[in-house]
Design goal:
The chain is α+β, with helices and mostly antiparallel strands. The chain is built from 4 helices and 5 strands; from the N terminus they run βαααβββαβ.
Length: 113
């Protein structure tokens, strides 16, 4: 039996665990500063795509945290994880939250500033 606000249970009855996103490559090499700018722009505009601000805030905190802390944040916020890398999630009201890979991990072709 799940607690209020717990994440979606899988077929085996356990919560879906968050995993590190797969490696990816940006179309052209980018710097950390460029990646940070892309991330900041996404998070600044994300609430305008719909959903609840508190869920967007929880997703940002989880995306920027280590996996174990990210799992706690997601579970506490009641986020329903449908993809292990957090790229697609839902809230308890059914609103969908799509996160681009660049907010979840660094590209393999990141270059020095």
């Amino acid at each position: 039996m799940g607690c209020v606000g717990s994440s979606e249970k899988g077929v085996d009855g356990h919560q879906k665990k968050i995993k590190k996103p797969k490696a990816w490559k940006h179309p052209e090499p980018i710097t950390r500063a460029q990646l940070k700018q892309m991330r900041d722009e996404f998070w600044d505009t994300a609430p305008h795509y719909g959903g609840r601000k508190e869920i967007w805030d929880a997703l940002r905190a989880a995306a920027e945290a280590e996996l174990s802390l990210a799992q706690l944040i997601i579970d506490s916020a009641g986020v329903i994880v449908t993809s292990e890398d957090l790229s697609t999630c839902y809230d308890e009201r059914g609103a969908k939250y799509d996160l681009p890979k660049y907010v979840l991990s660094e590209p393999t072709n990141l270059k020095d500033d």
